[in-house]
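Rotation project, supervised by the postdoc (A.L.). Task for the rotation student: set up a whole-complex structure prediction and record inputs and outputs verbatim in this book. Inputs entered:
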Amino acid sequence: MSAGFAFVPWNEGLVKPHLFVLLTFNPRIMAHTSTLYHPSISPPVDQIGVEERCARFQTRSIKNETKTEMLKLALSMIDLTTLEGKDSEGKVKQLCYKAMHPHDILPGIPQVAAVCVYPTLVRTARKALKGSNVKVAAVATAFPSGLAPLKVKLDDTRFAVEEGADEIDMVISRGKFLQGEYNFVFDEIAAVKEACGKAHLKVILETGELSTLDNVRRASDLAIYAGADFIKTSTGKIQPAATMPVTLVMLQAIRDYYYETGIMIGMKPAGGIANSKLALHYLVMVKETLGAEWLNPDWFRFGASKLANDILMQLVKQQTGVYQSLNYFSND
Amino acid sequence: MSKKHSKEQKAEPTLDFNSKLKYAAAPESASIANIKKQYDLYINGAWVKPAKGQYFETHSPANEQLLSKVAMAGAEDVDKAVKAARTAYEKVWSKMPAKERAKYIFRIARIIQERARELAVVESLDGGKPIRESRDIDIPLAANHFFYYAGWADKLEYAFPGRKPEPLGVAGQIIPWNFPLLMAAWKIAPALATGNTVVLKPAETTPLTALKLAEIIHDAGLPPGVVNIVTGAGATGAALVNHPDIDKVAFTGSTEVGKIIQKALAGTGKKLTLELGGKAANIIFEDAAIDQAVEGVVNGIFFNQGHVCCAGSRLFVQESVANKVIRKLKDRMESLVVGDPLDKNTDVGAINSAEQLKKIQEYLKIGVNEGAEMFQPSCSIPSKGYFCKPTLFLHTSQSHRIVQEEIFGPVLAIQTFRTVEEVIEKANNTPFGLSAGVWTDKGSRIFTLTTQMKAGVVWANTYNKFDPVSPFGGYKESGFGREGGLHGLLPYLKLA
Amino acid sequence: MAVKSKTPATEPKIVSNGNGSAKATEPRIAVWKTYKIYIGGAFPRTESGRYYPITLSNGNVVNVCLSSRKDFRNAMTVAREAAHKWASKSALIRGQILYRMAEMLETRGAQFREELQWMGMTEAQARTEVEQAVDRLIYYAGWADKYQQVFSSVNPVASSHFNFSALEPTGVVAVVAPEESPLLGLVSVIAPVLAGGNSCVVLASESRALSAVTLAEVLSTSDLPGGVVNMLTGNLKELLPHIGGHMDLNAFYLHTSDAAHIKTAGELAALNVKRLITESQTNWSSPDAQSPYRILDFCETKTTWHPIGI
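Outputs recorded:
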């Protein structure tokens, strides 16, 4: 526990008053009710225990029809991402085509879940993806640092939504969080949520800057209580990005919230998930932590750029029995 | 996301762990097992037929199929083995420079590593434990145990300040069926490192990996008679314990049999170590890292089907978090895979024997009759073989038999508590004292609990961890003497 | 009860009461001490009302309590209560109390020497016995806060855990003291039990019981909490089944050369898996008679694990 507040044991008695407020007034619309989050509602996390559990997920052996099913599922969960300073309309159009046609030679291949771009490229993506089910996600709120005035962040968000973004990936103010200014962070998220309107809000915790799993858990709870539809690990700009332990802790926060409220929150690990074997381990983790209802693109996403082709290679290998080369898979 | 992304609250939020993504079968190949049709006794460096010519069958508890026939050692055979061990002790092993002794033990460690996959498969076939456990825990730990003690052989004088350590002579060792190869390693490695010779009797339901170990010891070139493996049942063990030319008895098994051995050895001057039963308390405080605690509870009671002397079979949960913990525990149990021990995804394998399954099932009946609320996950279990679903009993008290008695199966009895004093009192309210678990985020409370637990091994914010360097053994009726670490040398030495 | 049954050789005789030899300036009737047992910090008589006589070298006969199984049972109850109290004292305090016992013994040396002579020792033998007993207490007083460091370990496990093994007291120990060495032998077997943080119930040398009772008087003035040491006088053969069989006894130290006793004790120990330590024919003056390994006999090794994370 970090200093700066009195630690109160986490138990049911403490959570319930929050829930009372939550269920009565629906905090997701009430941006100013920042007293809803207190770190005492977040249980401590034991790092070694989390790592051991993650090691167990990785001993699961995924074979045959389960493997094919899970590979396709993983592909359908990808937020195909380009977040570079040199991103252009041309690049985004190419990416969008890949999103809709991952590997047309192979029948029965799903489209990815979304294309994730900067706000100025939303319109391009929106147009390129027209007619498909692929969503447009935009990073906003002065991504990736988040170090901008709230007004700028809200304008950024509104702009992206107006341009046609279905989903907004915001970043939290990590500096403020680490200072213990939970209310500030809570209010920002709540305000951005309001600015999102009908767009869904993914809240990026940037776990690589949070240092401890205790902080990851607190940031998860804070984001969920403040109105996140999804919580997301990373911007991809900071190492480490997504890891299994961090993702597990976030899944557990989602589970505890679901236990208390019946409300489902989505999860998006982003960055660092480059191969399909690792992606399948993540799906095992989702399956054994949250269960079947989260095993679809509505509730679980991978933020990744290289993962799609690795999954495609494995799918072709499953079908042909022959190990594949990237030369045979389009790289947009 | 979108239309499904509704925010309406569900009446009773439940999680569904079974309707999607069933893991396809992922069996480890049994072809590597290489089990002979029949095994003789390993005495004096050779495979010899039992004097009476009797053999017993060993089966796979997962499908009841015959695996092999194994020699039933009688008193004559035990006598032959002890004589071989005595001769080897006097003529060879005690005279060999310690550093050379060490190299033989290192060789055993290395060959176990080389044949690890084969040993893991045989262990799972013969004993029913999941291949994940035999592959990742039993076999590596067995190899590491030999590796650890090998290094001690020529350094013993540093272990006991002010004393000159000397071997005892011939050690008679009896091991149980729950960790067949690992227990053989726990017994043989320190005995050899300290300069003793060995006659070891494996359990009758799981003799195969000990016989494989005899092959390994043979291949390692150990002098004949230094290690002898005599297979058999209780009578074989009794013949070994009561043999007049044994200097040391080491037994791991039930408290009931341990007491019989202790009584039998009264007045004989034979040195004895006992590693017996347990009924460990696993205690969760309200400030604990709950998700990791739940995982620790699962690992504490369902590891190796609960056939673990140090299993955390009594769970104490602080009342303020009891509902939360139990709910999470039940959900976690839904994701346990019960079934074929050779399947790499199996979490809970087969119960070791029909007899043990019957005992566990009797306790399930007792628990229900005592009025405790039973919970089992919705998983199916194979129709053939000996299987038992992971089981919880809620609303139990110290007065329930399922709380007091060692079930040695995947059965957890849950009690709630209010205060620190109360839970310490209840945790220690048992004749056993092998192990305990404590889950709390508060450092000073950890030390109060770990020092107050009358138990030889205390896991704080973890459970069921084992390591060759870590001494293991019990207080009270859980036995005496330690295995593992520096402390594990002492039972095999006299200090001059 | 301490009243003799036979008339002493020279009457009246001035008998020391332990406060140094009195000089007879005029004939005075001596005050004799009743040798009682020591349970829970008090000096009761045996509940059985029984006694056995010990004839002293000066011709006096002392009637000593013939303790019963119920005395043993009562002593066990208070020893169990005291065990936790004693174990929870700091090692430093345990050492200081053992040292205080040595001080008390030293200052009452004359009384012990006299009693030892009454029980058959020469003056030189008695002097050595007392001096060595004091020294032995000091030896173990010093060990009280050191044996942990000698016998404990930090174990370098392969996983990310901090793992250490440390000693804890076994609990309640029954001590059957050596028959031949009524003070040095007795101190030599009690001191390691106490240094290790255990409480005990002691059965004193049957034939030479006086020093044990007087030692109990030393203990009662040494800041040792009542019940940590309980001193019984009586007959081993009679009490052995009750000691060996007691289900609340954790460890049993038995000094005897009687093979039958050792076998009986071993068989009874199996009832609750007691730790049984037997010894015979010890030369209590030899350096081997004192050792931290004697403390280790009455300790349990506890291994504790905890994750190392952030």
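Student's summary: Chain B has a mean pLDDT of 96.
Supervisor addendum: Residues 281-460 of chain B form a domain with the Aldehyde Dehydrogenase; Chain A, domain 2 fold (CATH 3.40.309.10).
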